[in-house]
Amino acid sequence: MIRKIVFYPDPVLRKVGEPVTEVTDEIRELASDMLETMYDANGVGLAAQQVGEALQLAIVDVSHDPECISYLRVNGEDTTLEEVSPLIFINPELELLGTKGTDVEGCLSFPDLRGDITRPFEVKARVTTLDGDRLVIETDGLFARAIQHETDHLLGKLFIDRMSTAKKMAIKRVLKEMQAQFKG
Questions:
Q1: Is the dihedral of CA 19, 23, 24, 29 positive or negative?
Q2: 125: containing domain
Q3: Which one of 23, 102, 159, 169 has the largest count of C-beta atoms within 10 Å of its C-beta?
Q4: 3-state DSSP assignment of residue 47
Q5: What is the DSSP string of 105-162?
């Protein structure tokens, strides 16, 4: 089922997600709905907060662009995006690696808004799948960026929080319009 995507400044987007301690049928259904919702919106990631649920659950799928990474290891073994996609994960822990890079990011909760965001280029993510498997994912490029972006959501942090002061000033009007529509 396609769910309604929550737009800024809905307060749920600022909520730190509750850890998922048990994968119930409801959690599996939520994850399935989130996947359908993300694909319908042409996104590469979606966090539970973005469909109104403050939980530590997110999905990422960048497999449409296998060239977006230079390496991918899961539990120390080289693998491909196709083998791990879509990545549905709970309760992530990130170790940010390597140099930082700036790239344009967008967010399904901010339609038509893009911005240059600086993040570490590589990540080591410890995640749990819905089947209870613990994975250690080491990667770079768009996959690393998307995992970081979605994990930020799970912690109540938005990509606009990572924008430069100048960019925040430049988008101030857009954010005010979104706030007015939310109250509207």
A1: positive
A2: 11-183
A3: 159
A4: strand
A5: EEETTEEEEEEEEEEEEEEEEEEE-TTS-EEEEEEEHHHHHHHHHHHHHHTT--GGGG
In whole angstroms, give the CA distance from residue 148 to residue 62.
13
Instruction: Specify whether 67 is catalytic.
Output: no
Per the domain annotation, does 106 fall within a domain?
A: yes
Strand, helix or coil for residue 42 = coil
pLDDT tens digits in sequence order for the chain, 184 residues long: 999 999 999 999 999 999 999 999 999 999 999 999 999 999 999 999 999 999 999 999 999 999 999 999 999 999 999 999 999 999 999 999 989 999 999 999 999 899 999 999 999 999 999 999 999 999 999 999 999 999 999 999 999 999 999 999 999 999 999 999 887 6
CA 107, CA 123: separation in Å to the nearest integer? Answer: 20
Residue 105 in any domain: the answer is yes
Number of domains the chain is built from? 1
CATH classification at residue 120: 3.90.45.10
How far apart CA 96 and CA 181 sit, in angstroms, is 36
Q: Give the predicted TM-score (pTM) of the model.
A: 0.96
Can you read off the two tokens belonging to residue 140? Answer: 């770079």
**Amino acid identity for residue 43 in this structure:** G
